[in-house]
Backbone:
């Protein structure tokens, strides 16, 4: 007597299967983040050890231990190392600032170097240099104040016009600030004008431990704030109505994220000058590496990699040493043109 066949019942995926599906993208994100971190570490080491003056790893370890090596102690510890540290920290700050604005306003054009915030920092810094002969910390304070004031004015003028309106107002403000900078340089003393032009190019040549320590302490304070506001930023990228429906306090979150993004951009600009297009490039590249989703940690690492790599190229691989902003500008300008052309095609449905 044959036993009846057991019916085959299709089972829904269990908890372990769902967890495995979720682990795949998470592992890819961790792998991409780890690869970026190793790239940044490698570029940092290259910037310090190689270039016009090379030093071996054992000698560098001796310098870090406090041993004095004639020539190397000054060149490495007072020039190359603070330069690399400021490049790393400024890249992190620019990358975070760009990703915050681009995600919050849901537009890749909404970076501080496009919407006028960096130009506001530049205008007040140049005014401090030209009219008052300022240097060092005074220029940094002027740059931070200028960025905050311009961000406030842009927000007030663009109130009720949405993200696109804020970008258009910011572009207009950037043009006005650029004209003001040109006027001040034309009326300035030749020595002050030269100092201002070097700073405006975005250069790490005048890096020192004072600037590096100020920027490092500022990031120690601001990075945890960025981590705490990441959830609000995730809600903002869904749109204002959707974020409000999910329980996010949109006005308060937008204000906090705007202040955070402005401070990050202003502090980086104060330390290294307005290095072109780093904030603009970091967010979209990180988003592409993260499978289409914004990522603040990856944007920070991309920004650091861009600044460190561009600085090494500008200082060592070109016929004439150039400010790092020249190389980043050459990288960012074609991307901006491509983005504008692509956006125009999409809006026309072609």
Residues:
């Amino acid at each position: 007597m044959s036993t009846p066949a057991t019916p085959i019942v299709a089972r829904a995926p269990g908890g372990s299967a769902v967890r495995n599906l979720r682990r795949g993208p998470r592992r890819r994100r961790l792998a991409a983040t780890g690869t970026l971190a190793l790239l940044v570490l490698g570029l940092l080491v290259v910037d310090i050890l190689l270039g016009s003056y090379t030093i071996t790893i054992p000698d560098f370890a001796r310098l870090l231990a406090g041993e004095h090596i004639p020539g190397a102690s000054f060149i490495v510890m007072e020039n190359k190392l603070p330069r690399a540290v400021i490049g790393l920290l400024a890249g992190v700050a620019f990358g975070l600032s760009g990703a915050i604005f681009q995600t919050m306003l849901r537009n890749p054009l909404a970076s501080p170097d496009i919407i006028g915030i960096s130009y506001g920092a530049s205008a007040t810094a140049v005014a401090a240099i030209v009219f008052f002969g300022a240097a060092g910390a005074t220029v940094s304070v002027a740059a931070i104040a200028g960025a905050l004031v311009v961000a406030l004015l842009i927000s007030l003028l663009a109130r009720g016009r949405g993200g696109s309106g804020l970008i258009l107002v910011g572009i207009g403000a950037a043009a006005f600030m650029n004209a003001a900078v040109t006027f001040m340089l034309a009326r300035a003393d030749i020595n002050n004008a030269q100092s201002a032009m070097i700073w405006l190019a975005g250069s790490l040549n005048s890096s020192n431990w004072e600037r590096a320590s100020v920027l490092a302490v500022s990031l120690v304070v601001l990075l945890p704030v960025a981590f705490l506001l990441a959830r609000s930023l995730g809600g903002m990228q869904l749109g204002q109505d959707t974020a409000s429906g999910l329980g996010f306090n949109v006005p308060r979150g937008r204000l906090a994220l705007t202040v955070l993004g402005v401070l990050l951009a202003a502090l980086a600009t104060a330390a290294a000058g307005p290095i072109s297009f780093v904030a603009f490039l970091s967010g979209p590249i990180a988003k592409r590496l993260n499978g289409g989703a914004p990522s603040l940690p990856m944007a920070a690492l991309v920004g650091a990699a861009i600044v460190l790599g561009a600085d090494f190229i500008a200082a060592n691989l070109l016929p004439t040493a150039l400010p790092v902003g020249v190389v980043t500008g050459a990288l960012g300008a074609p991307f901006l043109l491509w983005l504008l052309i692509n956006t125009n095609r999409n809006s026309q449905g072609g």
The longest helix spans residues 15-49. DSSP finds 13 helices and no strands in the chain.
